[in-house]
Amino acid sequence: MFQIRVEPKGLSFETDGEASLLVAAARAGVVLPSSCRNGTCRTCICQVQSGAARHLIDWPGLSLEEKRDGYILPCVAVATSDLVLEAPAAHRRT
C-alpha cells in the first residue's frame, strides 16, 4: 500500500498501486478534477512533488517538458511509491 498526500489541502488516501490514482482517490472520497479518463483532456493534470508514479499508457497527453517537470495525469497513472501531489483543485467529496 502507498500513502498519497494531495497538496495544498493536505488530503490523503491509500492506493495498492493497481488502481489509477484517480480511481483510488475517488474510493477514498478525494475528488481530483477529471473529464475524459483516458489521458487526453488534461483536466486531471497535477505535479508530483515527491515519490514516483508511472503512466498506464505509452504516451499520455503531456509534453516531454511536462513529464520532465514531474507532471502526471492521475486518470492513467498508478503510484509506484508514496506520493505527494500538487493538485490545487482537489477536494474532499461532500
What key attributes describe this structure?
single chain; 94 residues; mainly beta; Ubiquitin-like (UB roll); 5-stranded mixed beta sheet; two-stranded antiparallel sheet; 13% helix
The CATH superfamily bears the name Beta-grasp domain
How confident is the prediction overall: mean pLDDT? 95
CATH architecture: Roll
Number of helices: 2
* Succession of helices and strands: EEHEEHEEE
- Quaternary status: single chain
Please provide the count of β strands. Answer: 7
Number of domains: 1
Uncertain segments are none
What would the CATH topology be? Ubiquitin-like (UB roll)
Estimated radius of gyration = 12 Å
**Percent of residues in β-strands:** 35-45%
CATH class: Alpha Beta
Overall geometry: globular
- First and last CA, distance: 25 Å
Q: Which class do the helix and strand fractions yield?
A: mainly beta
Helix percent reads 10-25%
Sheet with the most strands: spatial strand order = 2-1-6-4-5
* Main beta sheet strand tally, sense and closure: 5 strands, mixed
